[in-house]
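S1.2 Input.
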Amino acid sequence: MAIKKSELYSSLWAGCDELRGGMDASQYKDYVLVLLFVKYISDKNAGDPDALIEIPEGGSFRDMVALKGKKEIGDGINKIIGKLAKINEDLKGVIDAVDFNDEDKLGKGKEMTDRLTHLIAIFENPALNFSKNRADNDDILGDAYEYLMKNFAKDSGKSKGQFYTPSEVSRIIAKVIGIRDIETGKTIYDPTCGSGSLLLKSVAETDDKVTVTIYGQEKDVATAALARMNMIIHGNETAEIQRGQSTLSDPLFKDKHGYLKTFDFVVANPPFSSKNWMNGFDPANDIFERFKGYGVPPAKNGDYAFLLHIVKSLKSKGKGACILPHGVLFRGNVEAAIRKNLIQKGYIKGIIGLPANLFFGTGIPACIVVADKENAASREGIFMVDAGKGFIKDGNKNRLREQDIHKITDVFNKQTEIPGFSRMVPLSEISDPKNAYNLNIPRYIDSQETEDIQDIEAHLTGGIPNADIDALEKYWEVYPALKTGLFENCESEMMNQELNNKKRPNYSRLSVHHSQLKEKIFSHPEFTAFSTEMDTLFDTWKSRNTKLLKALEKGLKPKEIIFRISEDLLSAYTGKKLIEKYDVYQHLMDFWNETMQDDCYLISAEGWKAEPYRITVENKAGKKVDKGWACDLVPGELMLERFFQAEKQHIGNLEAEKESISAQMEEMKEEHSGEDGLLEEVKNDKGNITKALVLKRQKEIKDDTDAAEERKVLKAYAKLINKEAETIKQIRIAVNELDTKVLERYAPLTEDEIKTLVADDKWMASIEKAVKSEMERISQRLTQRIKELAERYETPLPQHNKTVGDLEEKVKGHLEKMGFLWN
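S1.3 Output.
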């Protein structure tokens, strides 16, 4: 059976995390990822004479399996890895950088044996046969490697998780540097590459047929090893990952003349505000002249040192992006001078402000500085994006959603100006003395939400301010007649009488009571017409893409499929009023990540097959227990809905009958409870009535002439007990029979039936429900806002005062009747 991506990820992490014990995640990851790597290359390359990585005799994962349970397992694994590294020179210092015989980290004696035995067993799972479980160009294992690194980064604590750049941020950088449509032969470089995820995400943006040469430098030995393995796992075996000191003091990529090597693209996520960036060299006399013409960054803050290294490493038409803390945009002194020089040279193309708390090593907000030398001379402005508010909580961190990534990259690449989100800021405005080359985004983009201001006059005299009604203009553009139907002017005859004929042209009131507001809106012709239009829009997209999905074949590329249908969905909703296309897009991507991508990987590996399998779990005694059956591609619920509606309804009727009987029993129990209740004698210590107690009591009072009424009640209750038991029995029989019928129905399923069950009943039905919920949300937001305004100003102050006065007089009257004087 093929691997489900979600199950692969979760099972790997769960197993590895369970075996970690007290070891720090930042250390344990090295052991886990090395084993995962060896398993991968063993599966992919064993017996292949043309493989780039040779698997020697005694140097495969299979040889590790043979060590399970043996006391010398740690030393044995080291020897296997040593053989693998010896015959593959480029793996020396990569896979043999960790010691599997380290008693301080892995335990002594049996503890080490058990831990390593269980760890090997996780990867020994037959479902993890990577030679058979990879959809072409969709790196299941590569993604699993990334997943494990992300989780290890989460658990590694502050400063130890910096080896990993969140994939969402990496994807944004990859999409904004312009690497997508390049020709073969280009180069990309990361001077602080960590585990290499940023490089890989960038290269993944290019066409399959395009070859990009990858260069990366990383000073941490273990992290550089992760990067090298990451490159191989993702099919980039020729990538050059160099280990050395800091890139600033000892850049390892140079040309034949000893100058800095330059690249077409440079990406980086350097350590934020490094305090020791000057270690090992004198920036004032930098032989690579990286700071010449800009200024030397502060001794205790290396942010601009890394940015200037990137600029110097770009070719004359090179493009790059660097993740830096927000402080680089506005800090003063020498950094202000460096910033000014960079802006004047035209090297800064754009700035993307990110939400706080995205990164594992720090919680501070960061930004992406996008550099572009190609058009520097003609640059007249810097494009800014304030994306700080678009994210979702993920544990104790924030995470960018699919819709956030797409919106940011769409807006940046198309240079689309959106009020409160993005803007092309002219250099003339940036250089103005009032801004003085300060790039702090809030200076140029006001992303603050409009304050909901209370209207004093409305509180005093009633009516809804027209300004608040007009603020809902996006709705009135679609529902103009609805607006006039909902509100009437406060200058109407009745209102004038109430307000002593004072004209109030800036205020209106609801023409219906706010309790009837939802019905008024939802039944209005303009609302129903727009809803129908949106339904038709989705149905057109659904029809078009259902055909595409039903045409999928074994060997499909899942990532290409989701790209195609999601972009089509975005296109369909582009320019539509009220509906935010990125919200619609998110619904599709959520379903893709939760369900649909697993299905597509199954189809890619096995085709349109629906084969049920038994579920067994191991209990505490070590025995396997049958937990029923399942079918991943076509769950039993779909079969029930499609083929067994009558049987399902029958069971539903029985369930309803059982509930009815239970309700009658509960009613009788409540009616005849209490000290003299006729059912008190048949309750156990927990207050429950059992059949045995009822029968016992019936025998006790069968000849009692004074217990006729009790016998009657007991007889009725006993009848309900029997009826309930019989109904439960019928339900159990019906469920078992239906379960058998469903299982038997799988075998004769045709491929067309499976496609209908999956594409129509499973995929499109779920997507449609989620997407169409957007209309409900839109309607609810309008209804709630109008209701909020109506209730806010419903009772003006004079009316409040009159009500208080009337109540005060009533209280005074009551007190006087009771003999109290009220002054």
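S1.4 Remarks. Residues 133-138, 492-501 have pLDDT under 50 and may be disordered.
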